[in-house]
Design a protein that fits this description.
With about 200 residues, the protein is of the alpha/beta class. The chain is about 40% helix and about 10% strand.
Length: about 200
């Protein structure tokens, strides 16, 4: 996690899939940063196939080119090997130079059903205005998964804007520590109740 999440061994995916009935998506990323080489791309495509064969529902990835725009050819090459499996574009979008242009590219990619974004490379606290504005587009709202420094006080504003998917990481672990790698069910439950409560208020 010091590098923002990297690909794991296939055996780890198999173990996770066996331990839960929840759908599992696995990170496709071999090195720090948001670019990749031809050799890495071939390995990523192979890993994606291995993860899906191990029972993963889908994968998570995101790559930028030298102009800090979505690397469409790389993303398309990975998507072509997914055989229709769903995928998430991760927070690489927060490091793109032009977020509007990045979103236009993403909407043209097959199989994408979630975009994990904080609205800013600095986290949700800095990007919340971008997230709420982006959610005014119904297509974007359906794709948006708010995450990256997400705090409970952000939830009411994001729900009110129409965002219904949220990513929590360190906040559901003891002391917010990635070193203490286990997820605390009580913390997850608290987030679930918080989100459900504000969603219900919007529906009433």
């Amino acid at each position: 996690m010091r590098h923002g999440g990297l690909s794991c061994e296939t055996a780890t995916v198999s173990a996770v899939v066996r331990s839960t009935a929840l759908p599992v998506r696995v990170m496709l990323r071999l090195t720090d940063g948001f670019s990749t080489t031809g050799g890495e791309l071939a390995r990523l495509i192979g890993l994606a196939g291995d993860y899906l064969a191990s029972g993963a529902e889908g994968v998570v990835f995101g790559f930028l080119n030298g102009d800090l725009d979505i690397d469409v050819p790389v993303c398309e090459a990975i998507v072509d090997g997914l055989d229709g499996a769903p995928w998430t574009f991760h927070r690489a979008i927060d490091h793109s130079l032009d977020h509007d242009r990045a979103w236009r590219h993403l909407r043209e990619l097959d199989g994408l059903d979630a975009v994990l974004t904080a609205g800013s490379s600095l986290g949700v606290g800095h990007g919340i205005d971008d997230l709420t504005a982006r959610a005014s587009d119904p297509v974007a709202a359906d794709l948006l998964m708010a995450g990256g420094g997400l705090e409970p006080e952000h939830v009411p504003w994001l729900v009110r804007a129409g965002i219904r998917a949220f990513h929590v990481g360190s906040s559901v672990r003891p002391d917010r520590s990635w070193e203490k790698a286990y997820v605390d069910p009580g913390y997850v439950r608290a987030w679930r109740l918080l989100i459900d409560d504000h969603t219900a208020r919007m529906s009433s």
